[in-house]
Amino acid sequence: MIEIWPRITAVALVVAVGGCTNTVRSLAPAPPPSEIAYEQVVTDPIVNAFASVVSVRQRRSTGGNLQVQVDIYNKLPWRKSVDYRFEWMDASGMVLGSPASDAWMHQVIEAKGTVALQSVAPTAGATDFRLQLSGAD
Question: Could you say which DSSP state residue 80 is in?
């Protein structure tokens, strides 16, 4: 009976120590999106200081009009605002005037957040666009 106690003690110790392991996984914050330069996006120095363009997507709608989406990332830890407008050009580079392209829109971008600015060309004849961004606050 005395010989069995050292074995029981050894087994209990192995179980106790083995059950105490703890795995901790720390999650680092995701890196900010990479900044991409697009010639269709025109910004002022204020916007350049806090925002970056992370993607530009475009396609044709079923009616043939060009649609674009530009994703803008706020690099700062507090919310910022931008004013923006899309201008549309035809194949020769001429601006296609429309009430939509003449109007400036306002957009708030949350801290470290991304917004998608979207627009649809006023006619199917539009082949390119320019997005103008201006600091609003």
Answer: E
Domains and CATH numbers, the chain: 28-135 (2.60.40.3230)
Answer with the residue of higher pLDDT: 79 or 7: 79
**Unique residue bearing structure tokens 């009009």:** 65
Strands 41-43, 128-135: parallel, antiparallel or unpaired by DSSP?
Answer: parallel
- Helix and strand numbers (H, E) in the chain are 3, 8
Contact 82, 41 (CB under 8 A): no
Residue type at 78 in one-letter notation: W
Output the furthest CA–CA distance in the chain (Å, rounded).
100
Dump pLDDT digits (tens) for 89-112: 999 999 987 766 678 999 999 999
